[in-house]
Design goal:
With about 350 residues, the chain is α/β, with parallel strands linked by helices. The chain folds into two domains: about 190 residues, Response regulator (Rossmann fold); about 160 residues, 3-Layer(aba) Sandwich (Rossmann fold). Helix content is about 40%, strand content about 20%. The chain has 14 helices and 15 strands. The strands form three sheets. The chain has a seven-stranded parallel β-sheet, sandwiched between helices. β12, α11 and β13 form a beta-alpha-beta unit. α3 packs parallel to α12, α9 crosses α10 and α11 runs parallel beside α14. It is elongated and about 65 Å long. The chain starts with a helix and ends with a helix. About 50% of the residues are buried. About 0% of the residues have low confidence.
Length: about 350
């Protein structure tokens, strides 16, 4: 799932975190305060006003994956409540030129609202220009076309609550360690807004909220395939680590392999995003203590709700964030559904029984 968010990097340096310990938060590209997605709801009056209007929507995505499938499901369910027909759902395969073609093709169906994650700020700014001319309402996931202004050009940006993802990872590891111990910090050593902010939120929360826990080892990682090698070196230098934070689930699997190779059953791992290997270790009572994920289905629902409000001429929040959730052995089945709108892998469900 992480790669779905790694493409949304154009907001790096503009989206930010407002620091301050427990009061920190994710804010928007121009410093906008985040509106929780739960506050973006369609009333019965909204639904009545929009139904029977014959409105149409297009979902123009950057790729196809469990993540985008869940976002799509949330959007389709909300649009269905409003009687809005989906006339196009596309997958650009991470190709900005292909996405531009998808936009042009979709516009031929005359959608009244478009939901999309723009792959390239410059290309998409030009590609969506015709949609603006046509009066189509635009709602963006995580990224923003260059020069676009809220209200005039788009209804909202909807994204994850990045600070909460990192914070909840810190809270989960601290709980597993009873608030004390020495931990390692394996962060994403590349300029990607999503991972950078989640990683920093973990570190900030540990340093400010958990004085009994010390980060004694830090290691950047850019290639997940090197995770086992780097974790092995960290464990040699710091054999008494009580816990390790890993930037996302794929490298966390490598860290888990390093722990197993050394016979280490003590060091706890916390990581971000859902994946079968680390979830399986977690439910079997292994090193992994918790996984923190976003609510992808809720992202889609909120995007559709914003789109409907824009069609009704209502004021829409510029920056909306969907909540994070902490998944443990106890709630893994429900957590998977809440995040991805599908059942957890059968191996995980069987092991959790």
């Amino acid at each position: 799932m992480l790669i779905d968010r790694l493409v949304a990097t154009a907001l790096a340096g503009s989206l930010m975190l407002v620091a301050g310990g427990a009061g920190a938060q994710t804010v928007g590209p121009s410093g906008e305060t985040a509106t929780p997605s739960a506050e973006v709801r369609l009333s019965d009056a909204d639904l009545a006003a929009v139904k029977e209007k014959g409105y149409k929507a297009a979902l123009l995505w950057h790729t196809s994956s469990d993540f985008t499938n869940a976002v799509t499901a949330g959007a389709k369910d909300e649009f269905a409540r409003a009687g809005i027909q989906i006339v196009a759902t596309t997958d650009a395969g991470f190709d900005a030129a292909r996405q531009r073609s998808d936009i042009e093709t979709a516009l031929a169906a005359k959608p009244n609202v478009i939901l999309s994650l723009p792959l390239d700020p410059v290309t998409s700014a030009e590609a969506f220009r015709q949609a603006l001319t046509d009066g189509t309402k635009l709602v963006f996931l995580s990224n923003l076309p260059k020069g676009y202004k809220h209200g005039a050009d788009y209804a909202a940006i909807v994204t994850d609550d990045l600070f909460q993802m990192g914070k909840q990872a810190a809270d989960a590891l601290a709980k597993a360690l009873d608030g004390k111990g020495k931990v390692g910090y394996i962060f994403h050593d590349a300029s990607y807004y999503v991972t950078n902010q989640r990683d920093q939120a973990f570190k900030t929360t540990i340093e400010k909220d958990y004085r009994g826990i010390k980060i004694v080892a830090e290691q950047g990682i850019s290639d997940p395939a090197r995770a086992e090698e780097l974790a092995s070196a960290m464990l040699v230098q710091h054999p008494g680590l009580d816990g390790i934070y890993v930037t996302w689930a794929e490298p966390a699997d490598g860290v888990l392999s390093a722990l197993r190779a050394s016979g280490n059953t003590k060091t706890k791992i916390v990581t971000l995003d859902l994946a079968e290997p680390v979830a399986l270790d977690m439910v079997k009572g292994g090193n992994v203590t918790a996984l923190v994920a976003d609510k992808a289905y809720e992202l889609g629902r909120a995007m559709a709700a914003v789109g409907v409000k824009a069609l009704l001429g209502q004021e829409t929040p510029a920056f909306v964030v969907a909540p994070a959730l902490t998944v443990t052995k106890q709630n893994v089945a429900q957590g998977w559904k809440d995040s991805l709108n599908r059942d957890a892998p059968q191996s995980v469900l069987d092991a959790a029984k």
